[in-house]
Amino acid sequence: MVGAFVGLGLILYGIFRYKDKWLVLIGAFGILFTVGVYTTLFAIGTTMSKSRSLFASLSQMHLNSLVKDVEFYKLQYGQYPDSLQEVPKDQLAPIHDPTQANIDEPMQTFYYKRVGDGYHLCSKGVDKVLGTADDLYPNIYLPDRSKVGFTRRAEAPGQQLPQ
């Protein structure tokens, strides 16, 4: 960021104080160089597999917390919510999926479907396609899973869950 501020200063000095076109050009180059470096770093950061795996681990943490919120909703209202938007907002368990984050698109929520007296909950994963090997499911460690409405449907790779 220093290059942009120095570049702006050089442009202002070149125009108003010294009236020198070379200072203006050097300042403009400093700003363009800074913008180019940060744009490149951002593009590399969003496409690297390591950054995608960070989104996946964040998504996994959100899913694990979201199960608790959905189960608490059932305790309060006697049934599971029809959509994740009905679950009270929790900063530790947001309903938006970090693996679906994209600058040009609005945030997507986790896949949630109420099924009978249970529900399906998952992340579509980095590839953004439901039913593939990279889908993420909540990790529930309970000796008696019959008390939890979460069900994980075994899907063949590439097979879509019903909308």
Automatic annotation (TrEMBL):
Record field: transmembrane: 22-44
InterPro entries noted in UniProt: Pilin-like
Organism domain of life: Bacteria
SUPFAM superfamilies recorded: Pili subunits
Key words, A-Z: Membrane, Transmembrane, Transmembrane helix
Protein name: Type II secretion system protein GspG C-terminal domain-containing protein
Organism (species): Flaviaesturariibacter amylovorans
